[in-house]
Amino acid sequence: MIAIQLDALAKIYPGTIEPAVNNISLEIEKGSIVTLLGPSGCGKTTILRLIAGFEKAERGTVSLDGKVVAGNGIWVPPEQRGVGMVFQDYALFPHLDVYKNVGFGYKGEDRRERIMQVLDLVGLQGLERRYPHELSGGQQQRVALARALARRPVVVLLDEPFSNLDADMRAQMRLEVKRIIKNAGATAVLVSHDQKDALAISDKIAVLEAGEIQQVGTPREIYQYPENSFVATFVGQTNLLKGKIGEDGCSVLTALGKIPYNYTHAYQPGEQVNISVRAESLEMSREGNIKGRVKEAMYTGEAIDVQVVVDLPGGESLDLVAHVHPEEEVREGDMVAFSVLPNFVKVVGDK
Ligand code: ATP
Hints:
The structure is a single chain. The radius of gyration is 24 Å and the shape is globular. It folds into two domains: 2-224, 3-Layer(aba) Sandwich (Rossmann fold), CATH 3.40.50; 237-348, CATH 2.40.50.140. A hairpin with a 2-residue loop joins strand 13 and strand 14 (257-260). It is an alpha+beta fold. Helix 3 (111-121) crosses helix 4. Helices cover 22% and strands 36% of the residues. It has eight helices and 21 strands. Bound molecules: adenosine-5'-triphosphate.
């Protein structure tokens, strides 16, 4: 079942010419977590606000649970849409304790029971009488989430939910928030510019650039099979190369030589293509046919991010990025060789 349907939405803010979002169509299944991922200013928050009813679109429709709530001459105000919102700064009331923050605006007869139920869900039992300033960032976020879930919303919208947390807490809260949303059986839309957040928490990711959706897919689809060079470079680190599908149909001929390629069915031998070769699909090996000099090597713990300059026959050179196993010894100035693992090689559109 579809919980949220956006159809050809466009929003132009007063005094601007370019639409902040354009032609946004997206279906979000009930019970799923979808992240709107993209760089600053690409329109993520605008989409969230259009769903909530804090903004009105110039074109298109928003439907929740199968009913149009905006567009086609219909306008359902935000408070009647059944939408729970978790704001970036949590927007807790500083003068109200946890219990009152969570119950704020909840008028149901089962008020006390419901508040205790959602506090239990977010793991805050026993902290009912604490005030926001007596809570950690992660606990404040749980209060905001509990407040949003208390009214059993059709959807929960979370704007940059992890941006106020430090790295440790962030990793923990990604798992927590996912667990809480799933246990509540809620449908959630998150806004993030952080690919790690998006990959870790989402059932689906919609990648946006300049107000338009570039690709919608599962985290694996987005990471492993980016459809265009924007998605390939925005999510993860990659090398974009021009090439031609080889006669064997399972390789691409590039300035770096023949690169093995697994997914050629859509392309004919001889066809010009752009490919994305993920940093982790360049494997350092003595037998590798891609040889270059290390320009920079940055140890990150889980890998060494290596920038390599490869000299090409015509006197030109090409910069590559590779993720090398952290136990390898790689230093600036070293000559290194790589071979390509085909699994993370993908033809991308020439956008
Ligand atoms: P960020 O990650 O920085 O929050 P975002 O992807 O959420 O960015 P939006 O806040 O949706 O982006 O903004 C999309 C575009 O619309 C931007 O160019 C922004 O400057 C513009 N914009 C947003 N709000 C308004 C407004 N009230 N009036 C005019 N322009 C606006």
